[in-house]
Amino acid sequence: MTHLITLISGDGIGAEVIPAARTVLEALDLPLRFQEADAGFGTFERVGDALPPATLDACAASDAILFGATSSPMAKVAGYQSPILNLRRHFDLFANLRPAVGEGVDLLIVRENTEGLYSRRERVEDGGATAIAERVITAAASERITHVACEQARARRGKLTIVHKANVLKETCGLFRRAAFGVATDYPDLAVEELLVDTAAMRLVQDPGRFDVLVTTNLFGDILSDLAAGMTGGLGMAPSANVGAGHPALFEPVHGSAPDIAGQGIADPRAAILSAAMLLDFLGYTEAASALRRATYATPHTGNTAHTARAILAQMERDGAHV
Ligand code: IPM
Ligand code: MN
Predict the structure, then answer these.
(1) What are the tens digits of pLDDT across the range 72-115?
(2) Annotated catalytic sites, by residue?
(3) Is residue 60, in this structure, part of any structural domain at all?
(4) Among 6, 106, 284, 286, whose CB has the most other CB atoms within 10 angstroms?
(5) Does residue 70 sit in the same domain as residue 22?
(6) Which residues line ligand 1 (CB under 6 A)?
(7) Are residues 35 and 135 in the same domain?
(8) Residue 73 has what pLDDT?
(9) Ligand 2 mean position to 254 CA, how many Å?
(10) Domain enclosing residue 50, as ranges
């Protein structure tokens, strides 16, 4: 039995960090097979589609996807849609797990990944003088994301923080809050609390050690996860998992395409490698995942993408892990 992994480098430094992560995965003695597929803005410019059908087929046939990054244009580009948002939607990868680990910080942000302000319901009125985005929150999506967060909290330190802004967004966040507390009652062993998202941001900076698992809506989770990354070594160390009900799941560094440093071979591959460790966990290779994670946290970025990947493998050997 082997597991098939689809590698999508995408744009910018994705083309550097994903090959580095592949080198590391290939060096581990695991029954993994790899295939590469195209997606991203570069792909869109080449073939007119940022997520070609062949890529979707490749992903559908695989157990897991390791995704690099894509450039997201600030303005509308006719025909272009973000391939990462489309992949999350296509495979219903509704839970975005974003751990942050550092000095005095060991927390997990569980971000709802399919709705909220990412509903794609945006429009202009008044001849362009007014712009409106619809924030869609459903009970079903709020409940399933809270289930995931509760299970994660149970496997960790047993604390859940429900993050919302129900004092202002009384309907949308009100629904999310009710649904989340409703699900949490099924987990009486957990310590459950709530925080407004602005307060959560402040407490994250002031006292990160108080957090274990946070569950929140899509855009709040997007913002708080970059904040948490900034507190723990920056985006170079921030991995993520996008999981749904089954296979495939998608793993990606949080950092994005970093066009300012792309093409120089200097990007920090550790976020991609930590994402690969999450992928290994997902496939059940938990021992290899822990060993890889330990070595990656113990290895500084050398300033060269490929060197850092090799240094992580060398660290694994020193740790006595089976490489
Ligand atoms: C992330 C990214 C994406 C998001 C962008 C690239 C669409 O910022 O994965 O956090 O907003 O979800
Ligand atoms: Mn983001």
Answers:
(1) 888 999 999 999 999 999 999 999 999 999 999 999 999 999 99
(2) 118, 165, 198, 222, 226
(3) yes
(4) 6
(5) yes
(6) 72, 82, 84-85, 222, 254, 256
(7) no
(8) 87
(9) 6
(10) 1-93+244-323
Residue 13 lies in a domain: yes
pLDDT digits (tens, 9 = 90+) for 107-157: 999 999 999 999 999 999 999 999 999 999 999 999 999 999 999 999 999
Q: How large is the greatest C-alpha to C-alpha distance in the chain, in angstroms?
A: 66
Report the C-alpha dihedral over residues 21, 26, 28, 32, rounded to 10 degrees. Answer: 110
CA of 253 to the centre of ligand 2 (A): 10
Q: What are phi and psi of 233, to 5 degrees?
A: 90, 5
Amino acid at 105: V
Asked if residue 271 lies in contact with residue 234, where contact means CB atoms within 8 angstroms, the answer is no
Whether omega before 248 lies within 30 degrees of 0, making that bond cis, reads yes
Q: By the 8 A CB rule, do 305 and 269 touch?
A: yes
Q: How far is CA 82 from CA 13, 73, 77, 132, 294, in A?
A: 17, 9, 10, 20, 33
Query: Total structural domains in the chain?
Result: 2
How far is residue 286's CA from residue 266's CA, in Å, rounded to a whole number? 29
Tokens representing residue 120 in the block: 């794609």
Q: How confident is the model at residue 321 (pLDDT cuts 50, 70, 90)?
A: confident
How far away, in angstroms, is 321 Cα from ligand 2 center?
Answer: 33
pTM as predicted? 0.96
What is the pairing mode between strands 159-164 and 213-216? parallel
Nearest-CA residue for atom 6 of ligand 1: 72
